[in-house]
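Troubleshooting: if your tokenizer reports a length mismatch, compare your output against this known-good record of 180 residues.
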Amino acid sequence: MNYVSLEQVKQLAINSKAAVWQKAQSVGRDVTLYLHWSAGHYGQFFNDYHINIDYDGGIYVSTNDLAETKAHTWRRNTGAIGIALACCYNANTNDLGTEPPTEQQVEAMAQIVAVLCKILDLSVDIERVMTHAEAADLDDYGPATTCERWDLWFLPGTAKGEGGNLIRSKALGYQQQRGD
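Known-good structure output:
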């Protein structure tokens, strides 16, 4: 894992743009950002995600190529970028556990989404920026059915089902602040 700045994430996106779009189009879809939590500890990062975010908002990448196919979202990995918060150890669908998402993590994720969407020419919407819970619901293994995967279904201070909306809303706010 390499610690990087938001500016370095932007450069990774610039460098990977053509390749990630080519991969996405090879399977007939747009590039998509999938948002996760690791269900692990703060400071525990996984290579399944392109980008990991620690409790303090620190950004770590597992690759120098955002077009690399990683195993983060069942049947949705080609031409997709996986971003995870390092948190939610011992969480369940009623309690975010002893290491819940921090405000710094949520803000960092929203900033990363804003930057990636700008560079990759993606609109910040549920079709292109999706939580694992939202993707899992589309594939019948999310909160609406088995609840096998429910990453970011809710966050501290949100109702169930609102985690993705909060992150997308914040990402749009960051784009407006920067004039993107």
